[in-house]
Amino acid sequence: MLLLRCLWKGTLQKLSCQFCALMGKLQSKLKHSAYKCRPDGIIEERIQTKTFQEYSPAHVDSVFVIAALNSELCVSGGKDKTVVAYNWKTGIVVKKFKGHEREITKLACVPKSSQFFSASRDRTVMMWDLHGSSQPRQQLVGHDMVVTGLAVSPDSSQLCTGSRDNTLLLWDVGTGQCVEKACVSRNLVTHLCWVPREPYVLQTSEDKTMRLWDIRGLQVAHMFPPKQHIQTYCEVSMDGHKCISCSNGFGGEGCEATLWDLRQTRNRICEYKGHFQTVASCVFLPKTLALMPVIATSSHDSKVKIWNQDTGACLFTLSLDGSGPLTSLAVGDADSLLCASFNRGIHLLKVGHSKGLELQEVATF
């Protein structure tokens, strides 16, 4: 009888573990807090000790890029050459897409759609549909080196791609054909972003500049003043009036984000300094989050910072210890951020207001 009880207890424990693994939830962990004063007197606050949920990892290796497909689903890619669609509210993997021969470098979602594009070091771009098969709907081949930029037009009819081969290509999404090509010497593309409601694409480069392209003929419409360091990323505000770019760097040299005017003057408006390694990503946060406009940045120093967009003051710093370089940020919904990392997969962050504007890690997957 005792033996039967032990066997029954072991079976129940095994089934319980299998059920938890299926649902994605593994365990909770603790995160400790600290406060750091910068020389300029600004207090940087890290998250207070709280529990957060750890789900089954979406990827088996480093995650390089993440994008929000809608208010519940995200897509991510990285070193494991797989694109994963994930429900970040339930912690469940919805679908995995395999087709690239090398790691995923960029993702771009088609507005108000279940479709998205992925780019890879294998020099190809693939189009996927969450509700379709696990095979790509399209495979676009035209670059000679790793594809490092993707931008979908607001009406979903065109795709712009960029590469370390110094070229930008414009594609017709319906036919999968390349309709325009532009090449600029030493223009090693790092990121692309389409300007809302406009025929313009913003592009950052390893030549330390940011260019504004007119897709009607794929010509450079404006080149912003060069920075001192490589520009790694760019993002355009929803109203299309402003944009932010990020710089690489080390030891606090460079490592900043810059706000630019996209309208008549196209001047530099503000800089956000405080990271100590390369700033890999930056996003405009929803206006409903705070009384003032705010932006967020993520860096290779394992920190996510929230900034006052107008003054450049750092409002909050969250340190994701042990995560390694933070590679990508995406706005999930009105109060959620998704952050990709080298060592600990994807982090779900919540913006709160219990003690002023603050950022809390609530889950990893």
UniProtKB/TrEMBL annotation:
InterPro entries: WD40/YVTN_repeat-like_dom_sf, WD40_PAC1, WD40_repeat_CS, WD40_repeat_dom_sf, WD40_rpt, WDR31. It comes from the Eukaryota. WD repeats lie at residues 97-138, 140-181, 189-223, 272-317. PROSITE patterns: WD_REPEATS_1, WD_REPEATS_2, WD_REPEATS_REGION. CDD domains: WD40. Keywords: Repeat, WD repeat. This is WD repeat-containing protein 31. It comes from Fukomys damarensis (Damaraland mole rat).
